[in-house]
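Section 3.1: Structural characterization of target chains.
Under the original work plan, the team committed to producing a structural model for every single-chain target entering the pipeline before any wet-lab resources were allocated. The record below documents one such target. The sequence was received from the expression subgroup and is listed exactly as submitted; it comprises 440 residues.
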Amino acid sequence: MTNLNIIYREKDIPDIREYNVYIANGGYDALKKAISMKPADVIDEVKKSNLRGRGGAGFPTGVKWSFIPQHEPRKYVVVNADESETGTFKDRQIIENNPHQLIEGAMIAAWAIQATAVYIYIRGEYWDMAHALERRIEEARKGGFVGENVGGSGWNCDMFVHLGAGAYICGEESALLESLEGKLGQPRVRPPFPAQKGGGLYGEPTVVNNVETLANVPWIILNGADEYKKIGTEQSSGTKVFCVSGHIVKPGNYELPFGVTMRELLYDHAGGIPGGKQIKAILPSGGSGPIIPATDEFLDTKLSYEDMAKIGTILGSASIIVMDETVDITWVASKITKFFKHESCGKCTPCREGTYWLDKVIDRIMAGEGKPSDVDLIANIAKNMQGVTLCALGDFAANPIIHTIKHFPDDFKQHVSGSNGNGAKAAAPARRAAPVLAGG
């Protein structure tokens, strides 16, 4: 399948990060076109394109914009550049190599909802990129594309960069808004939702979009929704950046049209598995989504929001972590559980207490001191965490337990089958380290 670089244009145009190079290759033409259109028409075009949010939820972008009440005098666009999902590193490449396309996309979104300011909330560990991005914004400001009288339209909208503090939970949009306001990064009770008065940044209607989502917008405005829908699948239009890591020959970011299969991605593009080993399991959406055994059915499933749902998992932000046949899946479940225990904000009792007890019991299992009933216990804890928390972190934390037990029961049995239930330790099996599961 031929690559089409809508997002990673640096592969075709060296130094496109530079303002003059970006301008010479059609940069900000989409913004000029957008401000010649009615804001409602811009929203309709994005809605018609079927662009879906690339941050994980896959919600239709144009529909999200349409929720903003046009009569409110103060509105905001917030760019989620927190990128703290395990195994995800796609947005940083956009910020580093094609920042003006992000700036342009964010300004088009701002025009569409008639925002008064854009805030880019960037992961705290990306401080060097944040400072570089501020310089790029200043270039756009001097060019008349940010700030006062944007493009001669009489519309004023400035843009600011805000560094987070490295909390996974602030990738959730309401916790992000709390953090941006200087408060403790914890999810809000909803409704009201961010698009509503009282629910957004500083209580004003707000659109929150991911970096990759907004970087698609200039292409759509310039080329039209119909052209965009020719790429990808019927329900998942355009290209997607797939972050591939773990036991893979060529880890990295791959921008490909939706509809490519997992097998094509891993073998035709990412070089296959080192040492000719077999794939045992894949996390198609980082630690937050259900783990899937590497069956032929799964490997030949199209990578799209709708097709991944059919096989019981999610595409999410497409942070694909590959594990070969040597990996102990119980150990993987333990590592992901520790991550979510550490990142739980503690506001919800089921998440705060659930992640603590999941970690405690699975540690016992990993130490060879567990009993078969402990496997049932963590499965029960995980199920009771689902659907009862303010945000999705509770569900994310439950997923690695529920689905590893479901798909890899033998990996758990080897840890508990040798225990006599009276504290005698079973010999822990040798295991190879699985891929790094730290965020970003």
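The chain has three domains: 9-229, 239-324, 330-416.
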